[in-house]
Specification:
The structure is a single chain. The chain has two helices and seven strands, in the order ααβββββββ. The protein is an alpha+beta fold. The strands form two sheets. Strands 3-2-5-6 form a four-stranded antiparallel sheet, with no helix packed on it. Strands 4-1-7 form a three-stranded mixed sheet, with no helix packed on it.
Amino acid sequence: MPIYPITRRSLIAASGAMLATGLISPLQAQALAPTRSMRGGANNYLPGAPVVERIGGGGFWMSGTVRRAGDGAPLAGQRIQVWAHTTEGHERDPHSHGATLTDEDGRFRLEMPQIVPAFGQPHGHLAYDSGEYETVFLRPVMARASDSSLEAHFVLKPA
């Protein structure tokens, strides 16, 4: 069997073939870094908000994903708390808080009242706070106050 010299071109071609055939995945090739808490994310946080089907009258959707740092595997059954200043209450009001669980693909989705601007920005608050992974607080800002949904994505590091 002839031995071929390893060149930059042959190495790139072999790596591309391995990715294309699934021998290695892009997530293995580059580790997924954990999400860092956002400034202001924990504002008006109330520990232990109950898991609910919907917050208030609904009409607005908060959704996202939860993955494990490193390999990016989806995390099922993780509790995500959501709260915001809405048409039905302030973000400090207990009835403006609720939690949901991720599905088998690490996705979550919770209906809530329309988010309205607080301090000039329409934004939501989300927390992963179940203890198996490090706590993360997010405060995503909506592009427009008229938006009817907002996404947030968590990459969690084991506690």
